[in-house]
Automatic annotation (TrEMBL), chains A, B:
EC number of this enzyme: 1.3.99.41
SUPFAM superfamilies: Acyl-CoA dehydrogenase C-terminal domain-like, Acyl-CoA dehydrogenase NM domain-like
Catalytic activity: 3-(methylsulfanyl)propanoyl-CoA + oxidized [electron-transfer flavoprotein] + H(+) = 3-(methylsulfanyl)acryloyl-CoA + reduced [electron-transfer flavoprotein]
Entry annotated with the keyword ATP-binding: no
Entry-linked PANTHER family: ACYL-COA DEHYDROGENASE (PTHR42803), BROAD-SPECIFICITY LINEAR ACYL-COA DEHYDROGENASE FADE5 (PTHR42803:SF1)
Entry-linked InterPro entries: Acyl-CoA_dh-like_C_dom (IPR025878), Acyl-CoA_Oxase/DH_mid-dom (IPR006091), Acyl-CoA_Oxase/DH_mid-dom_sf (IPR046373), AcylCo_DH-like_C (IPR036250), AcylCo_DH/oxidase_C (IPR009075), AcylCoA_DH/ox_N (IPR013786), AcylCoA_DH/ox_N_sf (IPR037069), AcylCoA_DH/oxidase_NM_dom_sf (IPR009100)
Family to which this protein belongs: Belongs to the acyl-CoA dehydrogenase family.
Keyword entries, A-Z: FAD, Flavoprotein, Oxidoreductase
Descriptive protein name: 3-methylmercaptopropionyl-CoA dehydrogenase
Domain Acetyl-CoA dehydrogenase-like C-terminal: 455-564
Chain ranges of the Acyl-CoA oxidase/dehydrogenase middle domain: 161-270
Listed cofactors: FAD
Function: Involved in the assimilation of dimethylsulphoniopropionate (DMSP), an important compound in the fixation of carbon in marine phytoplankton, by mediating the conversion of 3-(methylthio)propanoyl-CoA (MMPA-CoA) to 3-(methylthio)acryloyl-CoA (MTA-CoA).
Length: 571, 571
């Protein structure tokens, strides 16, 4: 399995599609010049191609395992993680005060996608650590920051998120893990957490858990939740890993894929923890980490989509089977119309999902650099779209990649099936894609649709500008955007949230289709007559039309969803 | 994992949707009265629920394995296969002259779906045997029939299909396996075949291979291919299994799923074989088996879809998480709008795919019973749709079923992931779904679209009749049918097949959407005010609109598929 990092594609997106020049115009990110971003992408790409990509199969064939309470990682993962840490890739967006590079999220997202494509199960460890870094930066005390941030930024220590309990998955407010005040500035944490990715490992250093728990007499629900930092090894007076804390891995899950990532059941027994943020303010702190991770998980989907695409393309060029009347490559299956259809669909959606994710990252960066609330709202609006569309694209593209392989796709040796199995969880973790869609139509529309409409205004402005060059394409995108606007108006007019939730997922997908068309069109304008214009034509003519059926579904309301009783559903 | 066979659903389909009363009016199938079909479905359903369903996990957890050249099957598969054989389920459609029950394919398809749902990997063995029985009935000499058919019909011996070679998958004409005339009525077969499902096993009896091979001096391509029956054990003078033939299992594939089904690489070294059909007439004989198997594989997809749906529904009713304002079941996740959306979508597509498959089977039966070529053409038209839509539905529904489970879906213990892994191959084997779509738009349209138009005429006739009862639903289906008619006219007007192939898969999906709407509407008419009317509303209002985007894609032509060069695809 070979992998080529999409360095040129990111350079193009940065320069022509997602507006990195505006970011470079801010004081905060003035150093992220084209030369710098180019050099960083090249360097990261090299590591992904040469060091990480060879580990992809290792993680699948030799899953992480639990031995006498210690997690043993897959062969080669230690070297892979060392390369990530030593390259400074964990802390690339982190605060320079603690050793970070202070680079834009746009670059972090790009590098995260490449690392995911190269070795998804390993990339999850630094990705979660990055989320924890951001949460600590925003919410931890100075003492905690000084102790933990340098170690996490350098990749010496890793981080995890501990939300889920058996009875509290999507409904985080139902959690029962307890925190008792020890009276010395620390808390005693007790309870069980499940689905803890990279909850333990043998890569050295320390494992730092951010744990949601409930203080004595805390109110019920999410308002009563606090956040604690619970290290596996308690730092000694010098800040080095010392005595074992009361936290243990009970078992690892046997999963469909992502075997290289240990998914742990964690037991906390009076483990010593430190409060992060305010008492009962755990959800706010956790959301900092979750939002970071949601962008990251979207990138995971895109990374696997790209890796599957490259893999399927190579197979299609190589595999001789049948003859076609295609102008070239008559003997390889890439000459067949339906194989072309699959490959072009894959490529077009990788572009769309990636461009949306980078736009999202740029919005985060602009919010940080300018303090403008409109950018904050934009970032918040795009996050669930990036997460859900990125991961659904990962699943759909990996599935098509398998299909391109024919019978070989179902046989594990090719690696096509592993992409499908590995990427499947990305639509579930960090909030299922259904939860993302509910977030989009409820929380992200609490502004009455203002952020959504502002984005659609911007789309239409760009489309108007493209009309002279590509009248037909621009017209298609403009009409789709108008439909999106109407659907959004309908949505925000629904005061009963069930009406919105009933069509939330199709609405999110339609939004992604329209944004994808917008970004494809921008790329076509910048690459007139080139490959990107051709790809934009394919996307806008063949894939964008889906938005109409999705919007019909989105506005169908809740009534017919509940028309069938539970008995009738079972009948 | 529990499974409830859809006996009542099939009774309803038979009585109200697919026109089994016409079949019962023929001489040939006059005995298939409502009482008979009901009794048979009930009996088969009982076996599937009680004997086969408990084996589903066993096949996954304890894959078939090769030991000293012999395939050892998963624990319990011997008892499961015995129940299938002794129940007479292998030979239910077979000629009574050789011990078959002579029942309609409509019933065989129904029972096949149920057995697939209960244990897909085991069901593949009798399914392939049924295909071989049909091929022998139509093409073998009387001597071969007398020797082999009773043993296969009783389930004592099983059958396989040997088409694929490493360099000859979808392009069967490229195969190189040789057959030399031994001059005594037998042939010496030599070559290697891959992806041979159930190529060997330890369930007793004999394994009979139908092998495509090339006689000396045969012309190149598919016209030079002949078909041979090659038993693992050569029958002795009494017709009992005797000496080992020159055929061996070289290895088993390590697959993404369907672990209970041994997928063999077979080596033939001067193996003794008997010609089936005419020399160079192998493809015609093989197509008898393939068409049977394509209907069967469509049923496999539907079976797994139904099993996943039942499994996800049970989980959704049981799993408490969050609260909703839904009228009932507030605490279970089935109260959540998006979970309802997924479950209702799953149920609606199971109905559509199943009704299409049974219509297909009825057309086969009517052709057999009446000799009317219009029924033959109808069956031929529906076969690729049944296969591709049935299996794509299996994949999509199993995927949604996993998603309904949230994090538990990605963990193997629940079985939701197994459905996804197992069903994935059904879109590939017996002709990939891309091949099915090419078959639909090329071979099945060689009549200038006559069979397709006749079917659409029938749809519109039924829709007109439903207009008084359901004006809005009928109107939606009528308009979609008109669009389908226009797309079909465009398609048959394309003399360059590449233009058709470019949109073949979306065209097939659109056709399935429209046929699904037709059959849902018929069900609604028969069940006014009942669950089926509610389900039809959901399907027609939320899922049918997809046809428009699919037809836009179907008619977009080949040009933009080939616009991107291979270099640009890689760029």
């Amino acid at each position: 399995m070979t992998y080529r990092a999409p360095v040129e594609e990111y350079n193009f997106l940065f320069d022509h599609v997602v507006g990195l020049e505006a970011l470079r115009g801010t004081d905060r990110f003035a150093d992220a010049t084209a030369d710098v971003t180019r050099a960083i992408l090249t360097e990261a790409g090299k590591m992904c191609e040469e060091v990480l990509a060879p580990l992809q199969r290792s993680g699948d064939l030799h899953p992480a395992r639990l031995e006498n309470g210690v997690v043993r990682t897959s062969p080669g993962f230690d070297k892979g993680f060392k390369a990530i840490a030593e390259g400074g890739w964990v802390g690339m967006a982190a605060d320079p005060e603690y050793g970070g590079m202070g680079l834009p999220m746009a670059l972090t997202a790009a590098v995260g996608e490449m690392m995911s494509a190269a070795c998804l199960s390993l990339q999850l460890a630094p990705m979660l650590t990055q989320g924890q870094i951001e949460a600590l930066e925003h919410h931890a005390s100075d003492a905690l920051k000084e102790l933990y941030l340098p170690k996490m930024i350098s990749g010496e220590w890793t981080g995890t998120m501990n939300l889920t309990e058996p009875q509290a998955g999507s409904d985080v407010g139902a959690l029962t893990t307890k925190a008792e005040d020890n009276g010395d500035g620390t808390y005693a944490i007790s309870g069980q957490k499940i689905y803890i990715s990279w909850g333990d490992h043998d890569l050295g250093g320390n494992v730092c858990h951010l744990v949601l728990a409930r203080l004595a007499d805390a109110p019920a629900g999410v308002r009563g939740i606090s956040l604690f930092l619970v290290p596996k090894l308690l730092p000694d007076a010098d800040g080095n890993p010392g005595a074992r804390n009361g936290v243990n891995v009970v078992s690892l899950e046997h999963k469909m894929g992502l075997h290289g990532s240990p998914t742990c059941v964690m037991q906390y027994d009076n483990a010593t923890g430190w409060l992060v943020g305010e008492p009962q303010g755990g959800m706010a702190a956790m959301f900092t980490m979750m939002n970071n991770a949601r962008l990251g998980v979207g990138g995971q989907g895109i990374g696997i989509a790209d890796a599957s695409y490259q893999h399927a393309l190579a197979y299609a060029q190589d595999r001789k089977q049948g003859k076609t009347s295609a102008p070239a490559l008559k003997d390889s299956i890439i000459g067949h119309a339906d194989v072309r259809r699959m490959l072009t669909t894959m490529k077009a959606d990788v572009f769309a999902a990636r461009a949306i994710a980078v736009s999202n990252a740029v919005a985060i960066d602009m919010a940080k650099a300018t303090g403008d609330k409109a950018w904050t709202a934009r970032a918040a609006l795009l996050t669930p779209i990036t997460k859900a569309f990125g991961t659904d694209t990962g699943i759909a593209v990996a599935d098509m990649g398998l299909q391109v392989h024919g019978g070989m796709g179902f046989v594990e040796d090719t690696g096509a099936a592993q992409f499908c199995r590995d990427v499947r969880v990305t639509a579930i973790y960090e909030g299922t894609n259904g939860i993302q869609a509910m977030d989009l139509v409820a929380r992200k529309m609490m502004d009455g649709g203002e952020a959504a409409m502002a984005l659609l205004d911007e789309v239409e402005k760009d489309v108007e500008a493209a009309r002279a060059t590509f009248p037909r394409l621009a017209n298609d995108v403009w009409e789709a955007t108008e439909s999106m606007r109407e659907a959004t108006e309908w949505l925000v007019s629904q005061t009963d949230l069930q009406e919105r939730f009933a069509g939330a997922v199709p609405y999110l997908h339609a939004f992604a289709r329209v944004l994808g068309a917008h970004l494809h069109l921008k790329a076509a304008v910048a690459d007139r007559g080139g490959a990107r214009e051709k790809l934009a034509r394919f996307y806008i003519q063949r894939m964008l039309p889906e938005h109409a059926a999705l919007l019909a579904h989105a506005q169908a309301g809740a009534e017919d969803l509940y028309a069938l009783t539970a008995e009738e559903l079972a009948g």
